[in-house]
Design a protein that fits this description.
homotetramer; alpha/beta; Alpha-Beta Plaits; TIM Barrel; 2 domains; eight-stranded parallel barrel; four-stranded antiparallel β-sheet; 18% strand; elongated
Chain lengths: 357, 357, 357, 357
Amino acid sequence: MIIVMKPDHTADELRELVMKMEKLGLKTHISKGERRTIVGLIGDRDILQEIPYTSFAGVESAHPILRPYKLVSREFKEDNTRFQVGPNCEFGGKAIPIIAGPCAVEGREVLEEIADALHELGIPLLRGGAFKPRTSPYSFQGLGEMALKFMSDVRERTGMPVVTEIMDPRDLLLVYKYADVLQIGTRNMQNFRLLTEVGQLDKPVILKRGMSATIKEFLMSAEYIMSRGNGKVILCERGIRTFETETRNTLDLSAVPLLKQLTHLPVIVDPSHALGRVDLIPAMTLAAVAAGADGLMIEVHVRPHEALSDGAQSLTPEGMANLIERLRPVAKAVGRELLLVPGAHQVRAGEKVEAGA
Amino acid sequence: MIIVMKPDHTADELRELVMKMEKLGLKTHISKGERRTIVGLIGDRDILQEIPYTSFAGVESAHPILRPYKLVSREFKEDNTRFQVGPNCEFGGKAIPIIAGPCAVEGREVLEEIADALHELGIPLLRGGAFKPRTSPYSFQGLGEMALKFMSDVRERTGMPVVTEIMDPRDLLLVYKYADVLQIGTRNMQNFRLLTEVGQLDKPVILKRGMSATIKEFLMSAEYIMSRGNGKVILCERGIRTFETETRNTLDLSAVPLLKQLTHLPVIVDPSHALGRVDLIPAMTLAAVAAGADGLMIEVHVRPHEALSDGAQSLTPEGMANLIERLRPVAKAVGRELLLVPGAHQVRAGEKVEAGA
Amino acid sequence: MIIVMKPDHTADELRELVMKMEKLGLKTHISKGERRTIVGLIGDRDILQEIPYTSFAGVESAHPILRPYKLVSREFKEDNTRFQVGPNCEFGGKAIPIIAGPCAVEGREVLEEIADALHELGIPLLRGGAFKPRTSPYSFQGLGEMALKFMSDVRERTGMPVVTEIMDPRDLLLVYKYADVLQIGTRNMQNFRLLTEVGQLDKPVILKRGMSATIKEFLMSAEYIMSRGNGKVILCERGIRTFETETRNTLDLSAVPLLKQLTHLPVIVDPSHALGRVDLIPAMTLAAVAAGADGLMIEVHVRPHEALSDGAQSLTPEGMANLIERLRPVAKAVGRELLLVPGAHQVRAGEKVEAGA
Amino acid sequence: MIIVMKPDHTADELRELVMKMEKLGLKTHISKGERRTIVGLIGDRDILQEIPYTSFAGVESAHPILRPYKLVSREFKEDNTRFQVGPNCEFGGKAIPIIAGPCAVEGREVLEEIADALHELGIPLLRGGAFKPRTSPYSFQGLGEMALKFMSDVRERTGMPVVTEIMDPRDLLLVYKYADVLQIGTRNMQNFRLLTEVGQLDKPVILKRGMSATIKEFLMSAEYIMSRGNGKVILCERGIRTFETETRNTLDLSAVPLLKQLTHLPVIVDPSHALGRVDLIPAMTLAAVAAGADGLMIEVHVRPHEALSDGAQSLTPEGMANLIERLRPVAKAVGRELLLVPGAHQVRAGEKVEAGA
């Protein structure tokens, strides 16, 4: 930590600061320039971070030298984190998995329709919301446990592991029971209690970037999860809030190579929520893969205009099929490939697939 | 709702749209201009809000005419909402209450020191964090129930009702038991489950604006609380996230007159978290009152540089005393006054004040 | 400047960096911590600012210690800058001048009507646009020199010095000839050529904050003007661009106390352009004065709905009169007063007032 | 235009509004809903845009139906605009030209070194700043005409057409004389006078998006240029200002497919200025091409750490060569190709290439 003293600080103020810092176990190093005196502090990172330096008399500013995250950092672990979800899908490897499905689970039949179509395309993971965070209390809030059951049944039917959002620590056991991957939504990226809870599970967690979260805050939230023991964290860029109104949010693709540099965790991209409009999704999905994304999360619905939420941003299965064809060569061009489940089209309704088989 | 059709839409697309809208019970009204055809939709606001218009073929854009909130709206209730907190303090009236105290409760003694000093100044409400949302998992997370007990004891000692943040629905009973006012923090403004829970209580709730929440989203979150029956909602502007880095966030004071126009709920301002630095707090507190704030929330600590969180933005009691003297004439200048508890300085440690007396 | 080396930098990289810095005349100071090696650089501020530190091999980050501005800084000049505009108006003093008038000069008669009404109210300075920066090439672009002549004639008539915007260095002589104060608009805050030009004049310049300019950039633009010799710079906060759409921009009032701390230059506030809607202007003008503004700039039109630009944000003279009555006690409450020209109401159309008299 | 009346508007207010609108030549259409009365206005787009609707008594809000731009719009011209720059380079076609070179021209020799290296790589266009917009008045401001001469000489030497920024209308003839493509920088996107001037030229103009400009404003600035007759406008996304500080700005790649949908003009991407750091440039350049960019603008310097501006974001020629190899397959994957000048490596210093040959 570098402390810059005010030009008019007194010798007493400097002495007081140094004394208090040393009492906290920090080593200090004073350096007097022509215009400013600087105090370097060396010691435990967690202590360094916590001190309200500018509330000391005579202090002008404080500049942290170390990044505040540890476990999520590439400095801590150099190699990419890799892990399996179900028998066919790996995160963090060369192949790029696609998570697709409806925003919300709206009923058994429509979910089956969507899942069958995605399965046919070889999509390895199914998403679907059971508990929906909606801006309005009068909007459809999700089917809750019933939706989880439908998803679980569809997993039996298709073999696709399922991804669903958890909004409330009280739903933990319920969601854990049914889901293969838990998702923390953008509005809960700093719901630290929820992070702490999922940090104690043994299932992968998709952590979505808060819509106004800095990269540093995003990684600190992942650090919450890892600090509790769960290393299977998937970071998901999903757009940040800016002044632009043509798109719902602004997809920050530079977060992808930046995160890949700072952390060993897999980084995926959700263009659907970032853009909020279906017409721009194909181009931005191609761009996400070119930027180095380790996975994709895309909303698909068989009849978007009947969707109970986010219809305006949902691809149809045909749209998804078309997008896959366009994605293949781009993935190849950057030395990757799409993770599609071979032979998926041979599994049909009625055939049971063992979970974990 | 106004639907604008694309210039090249077909007659079939228009017919399809109209048919579907009428099936949903909406009345439609087509108007053909030179360059665009427009479809007006009339019907239930909640239905109108939910339809993904742009996923219909031929639709260019959709423009809502009605604001999406009801219960919180001035259209719904014209007069200012007013309610008491404890015997001495009212929100929504002419007098402006100040809520002051430390960011986090750090121990019994330091809390007593702070509370006594504030009580001496006539401050009507004490704030203090028991559960702290911290960016880092390695930072001080609050003393939990112990902090609540300390606050409750200090209420006994000073008669000051206490305000504290709730972060987790599982803490509801605990926090309800000890606190007079519950606070929903900026990171939980869209924690809809938590909103739903506090909406079922009979105690006032301070709802802080999310740091990247629009005014509309802010009011929709208040609507969540009111829709469950709790009408005692206090809206708190606490700064929004912008590109400026000299201050932690940008205090959006225009939210005050804007909210006063849109809603009947009291609107208070927290300059401490918005600015993150103590030197700008006095000027911005004066400005908040001039802008029409119905209350203030300000961090005060007896020894800011020892504070375990947010020391850099805490006033000392002397700073607070000085600020009160500067606030008085400004409040008067805009036809208001500070709500200070008369005779507070006569209550001393050891004298017991009955809660509710 | 503090340079932080990467954890894996080589001794050669460090040596190379130090050598190059010393060649540039900088003193270096190496300090090895447990996790990072730090290089402190001392020397000429302008040289320090210009070096692309992170393009050196082995460098992780660079942290400037000194602020980049000089002449505009309080460190350079401690006392408030004060100067006269015309015989009756001073900037930088205790009294707060109001600059009022239409967005654009639309014709001789309407300008006279507005100016007479403002003069009647004691407003000391008249604003009016001759050259208008408009988003659309098809919008009214201002009357140009004719507008300047009308303003000049109105100055004869009322004695009010006039403020107008300059958009193009080629208009310099023209605008200089007619205007008493030149304004640089928000879109030209970083039109460095224009800044350099007005920096060579002997007339005051109102520099508006760019709508996405940081405080640092704002002051650097003022530095451009001062570095050419013109010390009569008035800084004007006029709203910054954020995600909020209820107001045109977000008025950043915290910029007022912050700027007053960093610079000796007067700081004024333009609530009209920040808010873009007339209903919020009174409250935010009161707040601006409470925050410490040294002046105000407010759009006034006799018939806002006929205005050729910015009608939606213009007060009527009656609105302005009412606002003055509300402003007086607030100014007094913060130890200031409004600068109103006494006896103004006795000057009438037809009576000639000598410029400078 | 759709006007929404306040719920408590009077019949007189409505009548007054309608009367005034019809006087302006607009047709009105009143529609009374349960909660709101709506007035539709039909007529000339430019008139519709200019009226300050909310300054009329009884009006709650106004909603424009038509986009405000014409000439730049796909509605106006369906096919992509295509044009040549020099004998070898086309914008708007299938092949993607790269514009590369130093931020600023720093001297004849270093420019020749850079240009030769780029020419060797087949880069079709050379960029270099003669007039530099710098935040600080004490920073290197460019070599002015001397830089233009060096660029012109290098064009002779290599055959590469040159791109340079114009900041001041007074430099128009000078820059026109030497440059093949004129660039309007991000800070001048709304320098409407400059736009008007370059709108009268017959040379292509690269218009950079203002760093806080909406897509609508961006297109309106292009409309300024086209409305004066110059249809050779190239739109350049170069990052927008957000709260994120790890990158200088946030590259908004979704602007690429969005602009391609709204306008027929070519859209290029400048990752260098958006990111401000060289390490993220390769990944984001690949992403730009995948997103559909029609061209790229990339800073290259032979010795970035000696660059007088923007060294931290400059690739070396080796970095550029490597990037080209990575770009080729991505371009191909999206049905495009890089526009590289074949045989470029055979042209050597000393051989004169005729301009336009």
